[in-house]
Amino acid sequence: MNTHIHRSRYPPVGVIMVSSGYFHSVLLTGSGELWGWGEASKGQLGGPVVRGTRCKPAPLPCVSNVAFAHLSCSAVCTLAASDNGVVYGWGRVADGEKNGNAVSALEARGISRVAAAPGFGVALTDGRFEWINSKMRLVADDFTNKHTVSVWCGTFNVNNKPPSSDIRPWLSTARVQGGKPADVLCIGLQEVDLTAGALLAEETKRGDAWRRHLDIYLHDLDNYTRVACRQLVGIYLAVYVRTAVCDRVSEPVDAAIGAGLLGVMGNKGAVACSIRIFDSYVAFVSSHLAAGEESERCLDRNQNWSTVMQTAFQGKPCPALGSHDVVFWVGDLNYRLSGCSMFQAKALIAQSRWSELLEYDQLRREMREGNSFIGFHEAAAPAFPPTYKFDVGTDTYDTSEKQRMPAWCDRVLWMSNRGKVDIVADSYTSSRVLFSD
Questions:
Q1: Regarding beta strands 184-190 and 151-157, do their DSSP bridges make them parallel or antiparallel, or are they unpaired?
Q2: What confidence category does residue 211 fall into, taking pLDDT thresholds of 50, 70 and 90?
Q3: What band does 90 get if pLDDT is binned at 50, 70 and 90?
Q4: Exposed, middle or buried, 202 (CB in 10 Å: 0-12/13-18/19+)?
Q5: Which of 150, 189, 211, 336 could covalently link to 407 via disulfide, CB atoms 3.0 to 4.6 Å apart?
Q6: How far is CA 203 from CA 132, 266, 289, in A?
Q7: Is residue 362 within 8 Å of residue 296, measured between CB atoms?
Q8: Quick one: pLDDT at residue 353?
Q9: What are the DSSP calls for 410-423, one per residue?
């Protein structure tokens, strides 16, 4: 038998177990993710049926925000037990052909082990698991305190400019419905420092200047206190909380993940901060992903995202990034418009037909196809025109020789881990700040 090994561009970290069918293999990572590769003639890899094509290693895309604890493969299906004891199946499972759509194969709970064979599967239950959880569910409300916390997330590529009062109209939008100040502010900046010397230093004088500028303005605005911050070359992140909720915030941790030159330099990548709010772990990420309109650059952006998800907070005293209860991700993600002409894009922009233009958005496409930002969400549609790229100091899209296609490069996304926290988006807007591009 010939064995072909594909080297994935998005390698999983911490392999717990591996199972193989005749034509496909699936592995389970330490963070509870499933990665599969091989031929998916029955949809065994969680996607569309693919006959005669070898799929390279990639996460099974059909179940988001589910952590798995055990798996088994047969020739025609994959079975996996989640860490809360529910069985999922892909391919030809007991109730018929599923064409790769993830289904709950069993109503029973408390599943600890699974075994798959052609035509049937076996699941081993632990009765104590179900009994304990059924009793806990009955009294959960008696031992659970629910709190509403408002979070404002903003991102801005400052184009190597020093701090300016021009950003105050942007920061002054840190309000929730009714005009009340948000409890938590997440401020992500990109291209804070583009000098050659900055590539050799994580934190710079320019970053310090932005930190002082934000500290002073936000303290005066609504008595905000900075609880976490981190800089990596041009990427900056700061988290502020109102004094009223400051005593509910603890355990700040920060991290920097370089994904630029040579795969490690900080000209591209992300910075992240983790805090505990009440009893929930919340992570904030500011990133600047690979630039460029070419299709291969979209793959690089996907790889940047995967690198950050896998390596952020490694060795740190907090959960892994994907294991936080909530993740807010802001930044210049650099995903472009693909498949439409410059004339078509500008015509739709002139008519404020954002939803139609969004159909050409690379990020939404990659999310739908399970290639990037798996499990993340974004507001239904931006209520503002593309934020890239303008002639500096104007509202005019790029008139330089490059004539870059407008795009929503600047985004705000979020993920609620297994639905533990309910997140409602109040608004998704942009502000008119002209000193950058």
A1: parallel
A2: very high
A3: confident
A4: middle
A5: 336
A6: 49, 11, 19
A7: no
A8: 93
A9: EEEEEEEGGG-S--
Amino acid occupying residue 113? R
Range name among 10-14, 138-142, 160-164, 223-227 with the lowest pLDDT average: 10-14
The pLDDT of residue 94 is 47
Give, as one character, the DSSP assignment of residue 196.
Answer: G
pTM above 0.90, yes or no: no
Q: How far is CA 312 from the centre of its chain?
A: 12
With tokens 């299709």, the residue in question is 295
Rounded to whole angstroms, the Cα distance separating 312 from 154 reads: 20
CA distance 91 to 96: 8
224-232 and 184-190 beta bridge pairing: unpaired
What confidence score (pLDDT) does residue 100 get?
A: 41
Give residue-wise pLDDT tens across range 269-298: 999 999 999 989 999 999 999 999 888 899
Smallest Cα–Cα separation from 410: which of 74, 56, 132, 170? 170
Segments in 290-369 forming alpha helices (H): 295-311, 342-350, 354-358, 362-368
Q: Count CA atoms closer than 13 A to 336's CA, side-chain side.
A: 21
- The upper half-sphere exposure of residue 212, i.e. CA atoms within 13 Å in the direction of its Cβ, equals 8
**Reported confidence tier of residue 202, pLDDT bands at 50, 70, 90:** confident
Q: Which two tokens stand for residue 46?
A: 């969680």
Q: What are phi and psi of 91, to 5 degrees?
A: 90, -145
Contact (Cβ atoms closer than 8 angstroms) between residue 425 and residue 151: no
Question: Token digits for 392?
Answer: 């500096």
- The average pLDDT across 173-192 equals 91
